[in-house]
């Protein structure tokens, strides 16, 4: 827990809550623009439903959450008409904060209880003969793509429509993020589309890969929105397309394979389409049969950058800096 960033800790808490609550709409709100609510969703139990909000604070040991934090969280819940709320921290709460939470009917989860919940329900840990061990796959889902000498094929996008990506993100927000639910929300998405756009969203930092959850005896992998994914959707919904485009451009620049192509354009002044394909062959683990298809998507992502333009180069095209 203590090794995560504050934003990663929000996603961690969302993944834990998703396994403990009967909800299919849980998501992380836009980071640092959430007005006191970090995670929200509808709880749907047999005898009641409620709009749920959670605040999350990743503190170091000894840095406690005080009464004033709980009071402000209560105000945020009331202002946005949430029916119930939970305050989660990696550290602990002061005695006045605990008393205030009782009066305000706010549930508190400190670091010890969060860890205990994860162990008891095998969330992020696996039981072994002599105790428990960290579940590497679970924690790997929290990480962002890493820079490597050779870019893994899974980090080369194959999703060439950002409009379709937005539909995919909206489908995640409205469902539990499983392939089946996404297909039900957007009939054009078959399971393969979900994987392609899920990976694209992950590369952009808009989506996180949740680890499989057992449903009716089978493992179901789900996608979830990160705070940047939520922010991207909200900007579009408000009609602030300029800010949404700026967020997208910044995200595209951070994708490792795009960064390498852009550096070539900066250094050489241009990048032909054939040189782009050669770069993919040399610097990625893509099979030769996949290079052409991925090159088309990489080319399209490059032209999202406002200072890169595709121009005609005989029967092909090249990319130049403008």
UniProtKB/TrEMBL annotation:
Keywords: Endonuclease, Hydrolase, Nuclease. GO terms for molecular function: endonuclease activity. The keyword 4Fe-4S does not apply. It comes from the Archaea. The keyword Hydrolase applies. Residues 3-116 form the Restriction endonuclease type IV Mrr domain. Residues 170-303 form the DUF7226 domain. InterPro entries: DUF7226, Restrct_endonuc-II-like, Restrct_endonuc_IV_Mrr, tRNA_endonuc-like_dom_sf, Type_IV_Methyl-Rstrct_Enzyme. This is Restriction endonuclease. It comes from Haloarcula saliterrae.
